[in-house]
Amino acid sequence: MLLHQLFEQSVQRAPDKVALVADGRRHTYAELDAQATALAAVLQQRGLQRGDRVATFLDNGVEAVVSIYAALKCGAVFMPINPLTKQDKLAYMLNDARTSVLIAHAPLQSEFEGALAQNQSLHACLVVGSDDGLPPSDARCLPYSSSAGTASFEVPATIDQDLAGLIYTSGSTGDPKGVMLTHLNMVSAARSISSYLAMQPDDTVICVLPLAFDYGLYQVLMSFLVGATLVLERSFSFPVKVLETMAREKVTIFPGVPTVFSLLMNLKTLRDHPLPALRKITNTAAALSEEHIRQLRSIFPQTQLYSMYGLTECKRVTYLPPEQLDIRPTSVGRGMPNEEVWLVDAAGQRLPNGSTGELVIRGSNVMRGYWEKPAQTAERLKPGPIPGELILHSGDIFRTDDEGWLYFVARKDDIIKSRGEKVSPREVENVLYGMPGVLEAAVVGVPDPVLGEAVKAFVTLKAGVTLTEREVIKYCLSKLESFMAPKYVAFVAELPKTDTGKIKKTGLA
Amino acid sequence: MSDIKSQVRTYIVDNFIMGSTGSQFKDGDSFMEKHIIDSTGFLELVTYLEETYNFVVADEEMVPENLDSLNAIDAYVSRKKAA
């Protein structure tokens, strides 16, 4: 089974059912499918072939959804890029993946134009919302709306071992890595998650997470797998608006990350929005505090709350069945259906219940590796119990209780989780070292009630230079996604060093 | 330009996302669409408005019609100050 075939089956079953509500418009399954096929035909006509990469640089909206399925129909690999990405990193990803087609939103022109200037692999850039004038600077740009052509479409010979998605994730080395996911990987993950959530065709799912974030993306994949309705919001910037939409659309499933729930509970009038249709709240990316769990359950007593843990490299690892929440509120649960997880010691030996060690994952959802990074792939994918198979070493340390329920302990690397997004301290430090006047920099995460962790930079300056905290933050904002920029900057006379002269971060906070 | 607009513009330029292009944005530009302010940024903007203009932003007033451009903020703050 191919990833887009899960969608096409739902199209067959209920063509006239509303699949997507976005920007106040309703789209049936048949309409979305027709749009995706029309775009696929145009992409094929422009030379897109099986295995080629199609990047999307889009805010949440119907085009982001249609583009994913159009790429898949062509046998191409979709590559969702966070619209907060700045031009140099965008160029890095487009070049690294040798992307053939970019589909981008016109308001992001300043970033993608700069990236286009640094790229030769793209042969087309479809611009969404460019009706009031297309950026003339690059001949490869053409309006997305012109894709409503009548070109004929040829179904490629895709199999489930082919790549479906390439999702870039921050790594401790500083360079983002492309996580290669096959059709089999994504179909398996979508099926397992939607089955333990018991998603049904009569569900209405709200998605406030960006589709470039994998749990946002899976709201599309899973809603369309079960034939449900997806309500796609641009963001969670205006929570009251989202709550009104949820009430109007009778939303039954509300997926989020801790920052979304923090913004929600920040509302003084939250109890005026009872949401009687809501049945399930799911949380991922980082743990909800026990206080937030208590509040959510008191405000939405009719809902089941799912605590979950995952990583892009295999999508989902564990979930805690809601009935376990009172018994073990801080556990992230156990492996999901059709997946095996266990803990290993430093030598890779399996550990019994009641131990602490690195979590490893075995299942059809485990990635194929990092795009053209064999050494980093080998650190994460290691031989498993059956000859030829590879299991994923998560890099995260967990402990198990006597019954095998899992509790997060720490990461093995120094990645920061802010707003549910991964932040590589190295990537931020690289930007800081590029700032005129900065001599040395060290970046750490510090606890933050809304963000989970906030990014904090310790900086030493070159002699005679003065900089303000604001200047440093603004410089970072011009180079990095907003969630990666430091919230705090501390200027210090010197940074602690090891005997070999390496900056030592222990104790910095 | 009104005082409110220029004050809030300065605050936004000093505190928010300017991308690679610098601080040019028009009074009518949507902060959300142009990625000038993100979801947690709007929360900071609300706190700034409350502290600077000395009124309370009610939950139901935290909507794009009041907050998503300089023009919208100008109209909203003027209305609140007159109330």
Walk me through this protein's architecture.
The complex is a heterodimer of chains A (509) and B (83). Chain A contains 13 helices and 27 strands. Chain A is an alpha/beta fold and 509 residues long. In chain A, the strands form seven sheets. Chain A has a five-stranded parallel sheet, covered by helices on one side. Chain A has a five-stranded mixed sheet with strand order 12-13-14-15-16, with helices on both faces. In chain A, a hairpin with a 5-residue loop joins strand 21 and strand 22. In chain A, helix 6 packs across helix 7. The mean pLDDT of chain A is 93. Chain B is globular and about 30 Å long. The longest helix of chain B has 15 residues, at 39-53. Chain B is mainly α. Chain B contains four helices and no strands. The interface between A and B is medium-sized, with 36 and 26 residues.
Summed up:
The complex is a heterodimer of chains A (509) and B (83). Chain A has 509 residues and is of the alpha/beta class.
Based on secondary structure, the structural category of chain A is: alpha/beta
Rg measurement of chain B, Å: 12 Å
Strand percent estimate of chain A: 25-35%
Q: What is the number of helices of chain B?
A: 4
Give the chain pair forming the largest contact, with residue counts: A-B, 36 and 26 residues
Rounded to the nearest angstrom, the distance between the terminal CA atoms of chain B is: 22 Å
Average predicted local confidence, pLDDT of chain B: 87
> Which sheet architecture does the biggest sheet of chain A show?
5 strands, parallel
Principal-axis shape of chain A: globular
SSE ordering of chain B: HHHH
Task: Return the CATH class of chain B.
Answer: Mainly Alpha
Radius of gyration of chain A, whole Å: 23 Å
CATH topology group of chain B: Non-ribosomal Peptide Synthetase Peptidyl Carrier Protein, Chain A
Cα distance spanning the termini of chain A: 49 Å
Helix content of chain A: 25-40%
The unreliable regions of chain A are: none
Helix content of chain B: 40-55%
How many E strands of chain A? 27
